[in-house]
Design brief:
Layout: E1 15-19, H1 24-35, E2 40-45, E3 64-68, H2 74-80, E4 86-89, H3 96-101, H4 103-124, E5 128-134, H5 157-176, E6 180-185, E7 188-189, H6 202-211, E8 217-219, E9 225-226, E10 229-230, H7 231-243, E11 250-255, E12 261-262, H8 263-274, E13 281-283, H9 298-304, H10 312-326
Parallel strand pairs: 1-2, 1-4, 2-3, 4-5, 5-6, 6-11, 7-10, 8-13
Antiparallel strand pairs: 9-12
Length: 331
């Protein structure tokens, strides 16, 4: 991946911390930074959801560093921020169902852990912290497309934690003159996304079912829609947001492709790509799920030049090919 270059300035003088860098989005950001010659790329991960497989290929690179630790420990965060210029904070406990089943742990990681990283980044004097926000913040607000200034009531503990992140970052920008940009991801998918475990995302589960000749499960009638976003677009957003030379104390922006796809359409695309002909198994709708989601990405485009280059169709081709080679070994 990454035939396109998302930065204009050289990276060889800059050091980066990627929290959750062994996870799905984080390891893709690491891959990009190392490919283009970053001075230092340090990963902080406790491997609760991340995988050694995602970063094993980087271990021979002299610019790569790994700290195995938990963002819930403030001293670990402080040590990880030593001599760092930019932070991409991807560490979190994702999944709406997980947060409903265990709101305490979700809060500990996503709120306390976030605050630890934020305080440590402030104290270390980093140039900017970019963090993973979430489209779940829009909650029950019915308007489409979603614009950053119009949010509703959260529908899950996970959504609450991600909104709290935005509030903390905003307060730090005003109180401590801290630079931060929150990226409200819309259903990111692609290579290195975990297919294992009870909280796997829909696209890897659909691809796994197709490759195994199985029938996928769909919660609801399949007309739930999402703005599925290929991971290369999310990487672009992180790189451009971190390195933007415009003075930004705190902003939150949507990161998506800008098109809506239903789950039924998604299965149809994957079925075509894999040559499978089967109908889904429909289950009851899940608690806390938003019915429809579509992003307005104008603000990210204006703020730091975000221009998603990979559509869902292109991304699915790449993802299917990756899972064909890795679905039985990735964990």
């Amino acid at each position: 991946m990454y035939n396109s270059q998302f930065h204009n300035q050289p990276l060889h003088q800059s050091s980066f911390l990627i929290t959750g860098g062994a996870g799905f989005i984080g390891s893709n950001i690491v891959e990009y930074l190392l490919k283009y010659g970053a001075k230092k790329v340090r990963v902080l991960d406790n491997f609760s959801t991340g995988s050694y497989n995602n970063i094993a290929v980087f271990k021979g690179n002299p610019a790569f560093e790994l700290i195995e630790g938990d963002i819930r420990d403030i001293e670990t965060c402080k040590n990880a921020l030593i001599d760092i210029d930019y932070v991409s904070h991807q560490a979190a406990l994702g999944s709406v169902p997980r947060s409903i089943n265990d709101p305490i742990t979700t809060n500990d990681v996503n709120v306390t852990g976030f605050l630890n990283v934020l305080v440590s980044a402030r104290d270390a004097g980093v140039k900017r912290m970019v963090y993973a926000a979430s489209s779940s913040t829009y909650g029950d607000h019915p308007a489409l497309p979603k614009t950053e200034e119009n949010i509703g009531n959260p529908l899950s503990p996970y959504a609450v934690t991600k909104y709290v992140n935005e509030l903390y970052a905003m307060v730090f920008s005003k109180t401590y003159d801290f630079n931060a940009i929150g990226l409200r991801y819309f259903n990111v998918f692609g290579p290195k996304q975990n297919v294992a475990g009870p909280y796997a995302a829909v696209i890897p589960l659909f691809i796994q079912a197709a490759l195994n000749g199985e029938v996928p499960n769909i919660n609801g009638d399949g007309e739930t829609s999402r703005d599925f976003t290929f991971v290369e677009n999310a990487v672009q957003a992180n790189i451009k947001a971190m390195l933007s030379t415009d003075v930004v104390k705190h902003e939150v922006v949507n990161i998506a492709f800008g098109e809506r796809t239903t789950l039924n359409q998604l299965w149809e695309y994957i079925s075509t790509e894999t040559g499978i002909d089967s109908k889904p198994n429909y289950l009851p709708e899940r608690r806390g799920d938003v019915k429809h989601s579509l992003a307005d990405i104008t603000k990210a485009t204006q703020l730091f030049g975000y221009q998603p280059e990979v559509s869902i169709h292109q991304g699915l081709k790449t993802a299917v090919e990756w899972y064909k080679n890795n679905i039985y070994t990735n964990s």
